[in-house]
């Protein structure tokens, strides 16, 4: 057996290698570690709502046997109050809607039930395929954010043909939210009753009624299960187009001055203060009650931290528009007042990050730590 020789490394080689390693380590450490608190950014400015925050609220009682057929003839529906009539999406900045719209809500262990009554002298619809852009027709829309953090919320639209479009938004469009258009409300039940005749311009119609059952096992994937005093954020919208009659059919009316069709009307339950439904912080409150519909009454509970959360929201608005002008966020609240931050008794702490920030406040009422980030998500330490 022949022995293999082992090559020897000279001491000089070892010394040179050691020197190189030391120099390499030193060069990597010396003045090279940079902890960046802010990196240059350029977000778009966002529009601020032009009206005061004043969300509507609704107490949702338990249902007792609902059949989704568009008739609303069950005792539970008859015992349930309608919401206030819808207003323009911009609130008092615009006239009241031309036609009345109102909603009722109920719930049980399986579903959130919604009934909508939409008065309309000329009922029409064209779209028949699910998940098309339904608001190109006159439509009824539902927006639900079960945990109220303004992220992972649901949008639902339907027309008088009972054609539906359901989608999930990861966060609002203003925050570069993504739309899960292929997401479906598994197990949803819907029905429409027409009080008149659809797509017949020769007569005058009365209204159309939508009745919906949203499965709770889907809605609660991003929020708490309903129970006494639990509150969700919710809003409703109705899109209506001006129409003309041409060849015995309805067509969208054209503005003779611009040569384009008139913009749609946007009528809502809880006014937004701007033409944009995707400001979830402006939606109304849905408060659940274990009482059977018609068998009792509870008051709406104003949660003690809502003012604090709204203060953080105005900070978010102002940070966004400050960064659009200055290329970075700021940790100095004094610089945010002219951008819409509402000075109050609260003194938030702001932690800057390379591409954003977190602002947080400790509630004296609940002892919860509330946080909002540069994407507008608001949450507390029990939301993690």
Number of helices: 4
Largest sheet: 13 strands, mixed
CATH architecture of the largest domain: Sandwich
Written as H for each helix and E for each strand, in order along the chain, the element string is HEHEEEEEEEEEHEEEEEHEEEE
Which segments are poorly predicted (pLDDT under 50) over 5 or more consecutive residues? 1-30
Our count of domains comes out at 2
CATH C-level label of the largest domain: Mainly Beta
Kindly report the average pLDDT value: 90
Tell me the Rg in angstroms.
28 Å
- Helical content stands at 10-25%
Short description:
It is built from four helices and 19 strands. It has 384 residues and is of the alpha+beta class.
Structure write-up:
- The structure is a single chain.
- The protein has 384 residues and is α+β, with helices and mostly antiparallel strands.
- The protein has four helices and 19 strands.
- The strands form three sheets. Strands 1, 2, 3, 4, 5, 6, 7, 8, 9, 10, 11, 14 and 15 form a 13-stranded mixed β-sheet that branches. The protein has a four-stranded antiparallel β-sheet with strand order 16-17-18-19, with helices on one face. It has a two-stranded antiparallel ribbon with strand order 12-13.
- The protein is globular, with a radius of gyration of 28 Å.
- The relative contact order is 0.17.
- The N terminus is likely disordered.
């Amino acid at each position: 057996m022949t022995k293999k020789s082992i090559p020897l490394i000279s001491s000089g080689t070892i010394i040179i290698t050691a020197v190189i390693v030391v120099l390499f380590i030193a060069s990597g450490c010396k003045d090279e570690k940079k902890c960046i608190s802010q990196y240059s950014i350029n977000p778009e400015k966002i529009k601020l709502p032009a009206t005061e925050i004043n969300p509507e609220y609704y107490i949702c009682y338990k249902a007792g046997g609902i059949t989704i057929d568009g008739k609303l003839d069950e005792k539970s529906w008859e015992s349930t109050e309608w919401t206030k009539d819808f207003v323009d999406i911009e609130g008092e900045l615009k006239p009241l809607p031309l036609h009345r719209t109102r909603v009722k809500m109920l719930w049980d262990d399986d579903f959130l039930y919604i009934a909508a009554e939409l008065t309309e002298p000329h009922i029409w619809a064209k779209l028949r395929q699910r998940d098309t852009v339904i608001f190109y027709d006159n439509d009824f829309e539902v927006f639900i954010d079960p945990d109220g953090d303004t992220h992972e919320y649901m949008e639902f639209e339907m027309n008088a043909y009972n054609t539906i479009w359901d989608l999930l938004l990861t966060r609002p469009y203003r925050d570069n939210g993504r739309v899960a258009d292929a997401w479906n409300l598994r197990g949803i039940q819907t029905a429409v009753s027409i009080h008149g005749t659809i797509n017949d311009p020769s007569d005058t119609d009365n209204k159309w009624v939508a009745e919906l059952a949203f499965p709770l096992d889907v809605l609660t994937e991003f929020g708490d299960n309903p129970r006494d005093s639990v509150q969700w954020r919710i809003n409703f919208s109705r899109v209506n187009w001006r129409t003309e009659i041409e060849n015995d059919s309805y067509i969208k009316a054209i503005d003779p001055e611009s040569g384009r069709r008139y913009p749609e009307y946007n009528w809502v339950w809880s006014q937004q203060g701007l033409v944009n439904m995707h400001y979830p912080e402006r939606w109304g409150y849905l408060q659940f009650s274990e009482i059977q519909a018609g068998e009792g009454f509870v008051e709406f509970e104003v949660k003690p931290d809502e003012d604090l959360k709204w203060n953080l929201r105005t900070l978010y608005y102002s940070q966004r528009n400050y960064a659009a002008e200055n290329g970075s966020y700021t940790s100095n609240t004094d610089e945010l007042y002219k951008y819409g931050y509402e000075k109050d008794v609260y003194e938030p702490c702001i932690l800057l990050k390379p591409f954003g920030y977190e602002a947080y406040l400790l509630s004296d009422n609940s002892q919860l730590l509330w946080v909002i980030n540069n994407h507008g998500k608001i949450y507390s330490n029990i939301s993690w």
